[in-house]
Amino acid sequence: MNPLKIDFLGITFPNPVIIASGPFNFGREYAHLYPLSSLGAVTTPSIYHRALDGYPTPRITETPMGMLNAIGPENKGVDAYVADELPWLKKQGARVIVNICGEKPADFAYVAKKVVPFASMIEVNLACPSSNGQSLSAHDAQLAAEIIALVKSVTCLPVLAKLSPNDFLLPIAKALEEAGVDGYSLINPLPGMRIDIERKRPVLSKRQGGLSGPAIKPVAISMINKLYQHTRLPILGMGGISNHEDALEFALAGSRLIAVGTALFADPYIPIKIIQALQKYFLTQNETWRSWVGLATPH
């Protein structure tokens, strides 16, 4: 018996441990450490419709219990990834969640259509920076719904909306469900800033960055549970997961799958360790991961 096997939007995952978008790149740097097929799935970095430069350095800095990053929309563009990285990743036997971005709604649909042959599902990052550097749709229900509807029109794959933690979570979720979204992933990093007291200026070149790591875990669990109580759609939860106890908390809050991100910088074997610890835990308890999802707040 595999106590970790879980169905998510019609796809059977051998375990619920997903790699979050970003820190893992496309997996080439990790493939010599363990088979990528042993993971629940690999989420790609955000893929844009065209090549883009990232932000100037410095763009990463550590914080207590986490890190700040302002890497920006650094990208080769979808055509380059379709020609190289995505075919390679699919050949590893990994289930692939392709994270897509854009500067305007039509860009998302353009990218989604191109990556369909290589993806198990699409994750629409609704916090992509637009051409004027502002958040495109994370706080705009109408715009977010337009993006989801366009992506749904070009693919039959399951479509996840990746949400940012904000006060408009439920109104945005309602609009997305009306637009046909299949599920959610959350949370994106929180906004944060560090100041160099010697130079008397922000540490990051873009002043503010995204805070990730264990520091944001309580926020992530709170937002996931809030959404879980108001939707029947499945949730992929993330935000500060570093061990199997964290993963169990996310399951109890309502996460059907969980994603590991920043913890990879400290230990590249973290996903495998979490999978092994969860297997041991549930076999000992004679329970399954599925039975824990949302247990703290039943529908």
Question: In terms of topology, how is this protein built?
Answer:
Blueprint: E1 6-8, E2 11-13, E3 17-19, E4 41-43, E5 60-63, E6 66-69, H1 78-83, H2 85-91, E7 96-100, H3 105-115, E8 121-125, H4 141-154, E9 159-162, H5 169-178, E10 183-186, E11 190-193, E12 195-196, E13 201-202, E14 208-212, H6 217-228, E15 235-238, H7 244-253, E16 257-260, H8 263-266, H9 270-285, H10 289-292
Helix pairs in contact: 3-4, 4-5, 6-7
Q: What can you see in these coordinates?
A:
There is one protein chain. The chain is of the alpha/beta class. The two termini are 27 Å apart. The chain is globular. It contains 10 helices and 16 strands. The strands form 4 sheets. Strands 3-4-7-8-9-10-15-16 form an 8-stranded parallel barrel, surrounded by 5 helices. The protein has a 4-stranded antiparallel beta sheet with strand order 5-6-14-11, with no helix packed on it. It has a two-stranded antiparallel ribbon with strand order 1-2. Strand 1 and strand 2 form a beta hairpin. The protein is 31% helix and 20% strand. The chain has one domain: Aldolase class I (TIM Barrel, Alpha-Beta Barrel).
Can I get a quick summary?
The chain has 299 residues and is an alpha/beta fold. It has helices spanning 78-83, 85-91, 105-115, 141-154, 169-178, 217-228, 244-253, 263-266, 270-285, 289-292; strands at 6-8, 11-13, 17-19, 41-43, 60-63, 66-69, 96-100, 121-125, 159-162, 183-186, 190-193, 195-196, 201-202, 208-212, 235-238, 257-260.
